[in-house]
């Protein structure tokens, strides 16, 4: 049975006449009469008794009114839900994120989602760049909050969320004695604690080039693949870390932060929101 037939049936029920229902629906009266006739034929019953007074519902018609009304309501609700899901206002949004997205970016997005899409359910998966690129390809996550540059096969949409300069994470004693400033030469002399080059090759080689241009040795004391591990190594006096400037908002015992005086040639740390075409609308929340 067609949806239009059910709507036509309810219109005749509500207006009590084919002519009035046709006017309300903005359809021709013969077309509405044919629709009701087809519905009667399909059900094998007479739904309306036609007279000069209008169209009176039969016992059979009155028996199905509540069911038809409820069915139309559920269909309209399903339609609203489908449209809201397509627009990114309902359903479930699965978000992959690197740790730096936890500061400012994700909290701001959550406030926006709560305001604009209160029915949208959220799932979070904290993971690194490589894991996120694979999860995006497989559809395990819908949006990735990820560091650039990235390489993902297939068409993806990207949005730059934040660009951070690199700052030095140094042992607290050094931060106090240096007055909050340090040079690349001083950092090179102490030795560095960095993310592995496989994790962020663009940043790794950019730092190496900037230091070597100054005639200094690019010396790595320790590799650490997580920000908190870098900070722990710095606090343990294993070397000096280079981290994005958002790290200033996070305290860590034994660690202070310094501006790099001659760090203009250092690469920036870029955070992106990445989504497949079908989830492009979700990027508006970030």
TrEMBL record:
Per the UniProt record, the lineage of the source organism begins with: Bacteria, Pseudomonadati, Pseudomonadota, Betaproteobacteria, Burkholderiales
Spell out where the chain crosses the membrane: none
InterPro entries with a match to the protein in the record = LysR_HTH_N, LysR_subst-bd, WH-like_DNA-bd_sf, WH_DNA-bd_sf
- Among the Pfam families in the record, one is LysR_substrate
The GO molecular function terms of this record are: DNA binding; DNA-binding transcription factor activity
Name recorded for this polypeptide: DNA-binding transcriptional regulator, LysR family
* Gene3D superfamilies named among the record's database cross-references: Periplasmic binding protein-like II, Winged helix-like DNA-binding domain superfamily/Winged helix DNA-binding domain
Gene Ontology annotations for the cellular component aspect, listed alphabetically: protein-DNA complex
What PANTHER family has UniProt attached to this entry? Answer: LYSR FAMILY TRANSCRIPTIONAL REGULATOR, TRANSCRIPTIONAL DUAL REGULATOR HCAR-RELATED
Its family? Belongs to the LysR transcriptional regulatory family.
Q: Which residues form a coiled coil?
A: none
* Keywords on record: DNA-binding, Transcription, Transcription regulation
Q: Where would I find the HTH lysR-type domain in this sequence?
A: 1-58
The signal peptide here is none
């Amino acid at each position: 049975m067609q949806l239009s037939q059910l709507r036509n049936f309810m219109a005749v029920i509500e207006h009590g006449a084919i002519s009035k229902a046709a006017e309300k629906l903005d359809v021709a009266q013969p077309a509405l009469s044919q629709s009701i006739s087809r519905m009667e034929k399909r059900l094998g019953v007479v739904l309306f008794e036609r007279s000069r007074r209008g169209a009176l519902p039969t016992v059979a018609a009155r028996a199905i009114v509540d069911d038809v009304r409820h069915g139309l309501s559920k269909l309209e609700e399903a339609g609203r839900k489908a449209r809201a899901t397509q627009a990114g206002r309902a359903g479930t949004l699965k978000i992959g994120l690197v740790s730096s997205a936890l500061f400012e970016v994700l909290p701001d997005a959550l406030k926006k989602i709560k305001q604009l899409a209160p029915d949208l359910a959220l799932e979070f998966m904290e993971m690194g760049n490589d894991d996120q690129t694979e999860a995006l390809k497989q559809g395990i996550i819908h949006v990735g909050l990820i560091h650039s540059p990235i390489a993902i096969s297939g068409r993806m949409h990207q949005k730059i969320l934040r660009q951070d300069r690199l700052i030095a994470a140094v042992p607290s004693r050094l931060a106090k004695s240096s007055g909050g400033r340090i040079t690349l030469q001083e950092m090179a002399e102490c030795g560095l604690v960095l993310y592995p080059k496989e994790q962020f090759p663009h940043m790794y080689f950019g730092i190496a080039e900037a230091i070597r241009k100054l005639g200094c040795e690019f010396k790595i004391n320790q590799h650490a693949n997580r920000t908190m591990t870098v900070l722990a190594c710095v606090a343990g006096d294993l070397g000096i870390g280079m981290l994005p400037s958002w790290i200033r908002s996070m305290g860590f015992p034994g660690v202070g932060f310094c501006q790099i005086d001659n760090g203009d040639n250092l690469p920036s740390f870029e955070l992106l929101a990445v989504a497949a075409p079908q989830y492009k609308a979700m990027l508006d929340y970030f």
